[in-house]
Amino acid sequence: MQLKGYFYVILAAVLWALIGPVSRYAFEAGMPPLEVAFWRSCLAWVFFASQARALGQMRVARNDLPAVLAFGVVGIAGLFGSYAMAVRAGGAALASVLLYTAPAWVAVMSRLWLGERLSTPKIAAVVLTIVGVAGISLGPDWSGGKSFGVAAILFGLLSGITYALYYIFGKRYLGRYSTPTLFLYALPVGALVVSPFFRFEAHPWQAWVAVAVLAFVSTYLAYSIYYAGLKHLEATRASVVATLEPLVASLLAFFLWDETFTPLGYIGAALILSAVLLTVVDGARRRRIAAMPSRAGA
Description:
By secondary structure, the chain is mostly helical. The protein is 79% helix and 0% strand. It is built from 13 helices and no strands. The chain is globular and about 60 Å long. Keywords: Membrane, Transmembrane, Transmembrane helix.
């Protein structure tokens, strides 16, 4: 069952990797980033709401509703807003590195809130992941000597924390509700919070096609597949495997716009793959150990 979980999470990472290239087409068509985020949330809500209605899964317990709505504010609006501010204050490279501190935050949160053991392989995989993403993101500007302000660091770390909440929230509530049910309530809240920060304007059809792809492929399909995988994996393992996203995104950028890795970027890509391999191998080892008593008693 864990192998199925790894497959789902890797597939979700590939779909998430499309966010950058597809968003770039929307930006080039004249739609600003926060408006892209708004319409992506709204259109994705249509898909999740339709599925929730078709399955008859539209109810949330009154006691859980505040947490679900808070997830919309923090996990959707918070992530979009803090990441955009980090990019503006410190650039996309720094923002990307700090966003993908999420596995480290997940490891800590999972230990505190979910009771997951913080094993040595988990810690090693998290460290490899963060260093690898740093290599891919900072490689082009490694020799520039660029310094960053406090605001850039704080907004970037906040984006990593809010991104980490996707894993923790999903692990805590997926046992009670389906993915469509959760996003039925969270997405419109996030869109509402983001809406005051841009002006609605007319855009060409290319922008709307890009937003539709983001909403259906990189949001509806990606999150549905990811949370299906999260049912079979610990939150920390899932978050580390999902960090294949920047590697896949970099490959797409190479084929679409002839962007290449720096030597440091290639090292970073290798470290990310090593972290994924370490996660999978450690999971297989733990399954073998768990199966030993039952075999002995057979």
